[in-house]
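User: Okay, second chain of the day. Same drill as before: sequence in, structure tokens out.
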Amino acid sequence: MVQIFTTGGTIEGLDYLNNQGITESDVAIKAFLDNANIGFKYSIESVFKKDSRAINENDLKLLASKIKESNATKILITHGTFTMEDTAKYIGKLNLNKTIVLVGSFILGSSEDTDAPFNLGYAISSLQLLKPNVYIAMNGQVFLWNNVFKNLETNKFERNE
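Assistant: Same drill. Structure tokens below.
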């Protein structure tokens, strides 16, 4: 079984409004999975719904505790892209011996031309094939937690070279 933890972000259609951290969401990850006619068992739990720029130390501790408490060895985390690599590094340093993949989108999940379904499908596929560790799956690539950064000029994740 795959455990999916949602934390908000663009993939869930969260839009950062008025620079005040106010968000609105009308997207459910379950809807993306239902549309894809997924053929494996999964469970979805919302840990919090935040723009990733608003995630704090307590949020990271909560997410880490949910991962540790889960019986699943394959965990997908939906996350905003602004601080995705920070969360991956936080979780990666915990050495949890589970396969954990973080995924998000650059275009609102509620938008017609969103990259959310592709990224979600790619991340789920990767999750099933990867060895235990923490990864980011974005832009059709997989990145290890300790070798990734978001290039703000290209709006893509890249390896530290």
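The beta strands are 2-6, 42-46, 74-78, 99-103, 133-138, 141-144, 149-151, 156-158.

User: Thanks, on to the next one.
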